[in-house]
Design goal:
By secondary structure, the chain is mostly helical. The chain is built from twelve helices and no strands. It is 74% helix and 0% strand.
């Protein structure tokens, strides 16, 4: 929740700079609730609004949730089916990482998933509101280091899964694929490319260990 505060403030500030009211910024965070996609969307927010391109780009960015939900699905067999879809709405990169770490040592139950996911949602949209309401009055986000907050939280997630050289190989392969795709293709395909290549390399290394 603490980590969400600077990121939410930053997004709200950027949204206000593109003409969003504080209420509109908050409502987008309530209903979209996808930080990476929201940052991409606000970056592309120009008039006239490129609705089709914006929609397709944010869809590509959020394709990683297919990988995350597939990964988490094997651990939530004890959760009632009717609740699984609702929980997937509030599943974020951070709550997914916490759930995967928890699954290494204990079963995932309904209470843990709600407790680790639900509090992040209001933190995100309330900080978005505050950022949009007062962000422009505080000056450039870079002055306070807020521009690095998004990168910092993902670096923390990655290092939380460190298991030695094999983890490093996955990170390097994923990063190289993302950078190469970013240079070769326009749009946000690099996010999905990095995720897919990372999964493939991890699977190959895992199969070698089993062999």
């Amino acid at each position: 929740m603490v980590a969400y505060v600077p990121i939410g403030l930053l997004w709200g500030t950027l949204a206000a700079g593109k003409g969003f009211s504080a209420l509109a910024a908050m409502l987008m965070s309530v209903f979209v609730y996808a930080g990476a996609s929201q940052f991409v969307a606000v970056d592309m927010w120009v008039q006239p609004l490129p609705v089709l391109v914006l929609t397709l780009t944010t869809l590509v960015v959020n394709l990683r949730h297919v990988l995350m939900s597939a990964s988490i699905s094997r651990h939530i067999t004890a959760v009632p089916k009717g609740w699984r879809y609702a929980l997937m709405f509030i599943l974020t990169d951070e709550s997914w990482a916490m759930a995967e770490r928890r699954a290494l040592r204990a079963p995932l139950d309904f209470g843990y998933l709600v407790g680790s996911s639900l509090p992040l949602w209001p933190t995100w949209f309330l900080c978005s509101f505050i950022g949009a309401a007062v962000g422009n009055k505080l000056g450039a986000p870079e002055t306070y280091g807020l521009d690095f907050a998004f990168s910092a939280i993902f670096l923390t997630i990655i290092m939380g899964f460190w298991k030695g050289p094999r983890t490093g190989a996955v990170i390097i392969a994923s990063g190289a694929a993302a950078v190469g795709t970013k240079l070769a293709l326009s749009g946000a395909w690099y996010i999905m490319a990095g995720g897919v290549v990372g999964v493939i390399v991890a699977a190959l290394l895992h199969s070698e260990v089993d062999a």
